[in-house]
Design brief:
Elements lengths: L5 E5 L2 E43 L2 E13 L2 E13 L2 E7 L2 E5 L2 E6 L2 E13 L2 E10 L1 H23 L1
Parallel strand pairs: 1-2, 2-3, 3-4, 4-5, 4-6, 5-7, 6-8, 7-8, 8-9
Length: 161
Amino acid sequence: MTARNSTDIEGKAIELIEAEFVNIKQSTVRAVEGGHIELQQVGALRIDGERIEVTQGAAVVLRGSDVTMNQSISAVTAGSNTALNFSLSPLTISKGEASVNRSAIGIMAARDIKAENSTSLLMIANKVEGNVTTLLDWRSALALGAVFGGVWGLLTLFRKK
């Protein structure tokens, strides 16, 4: 399905949607591309847009300028500015500011991170503000990388003989 200006969809399974304004509720979508995308209770493989708002949805890849997730799950989230509220994302990358509120993040990289009562495996940023629990800081991540590199090197030496 392809449209040019505006698309409102509810309760359907769709392959591809391209529109400037997209509003989808309780549906499944393979790919969505557009300017302003609003999704509620939607499962999607790929979402590309300027402004993306997902509420109670699941996506494999979210990519946009301004990305907002509320009670949602995304495998990879990338954007200029990202906001996660009560959400889960194993990998989040933001060019500018990332805001995380009561969410779980695997690895997050951003220029500035504002976090409230969130958890993460690793956060990489110039400035982190708020209450966040991380498993690895930069020192422990460096040490863990050195250990894995040493074990990998040792195994490759044994395998050559």
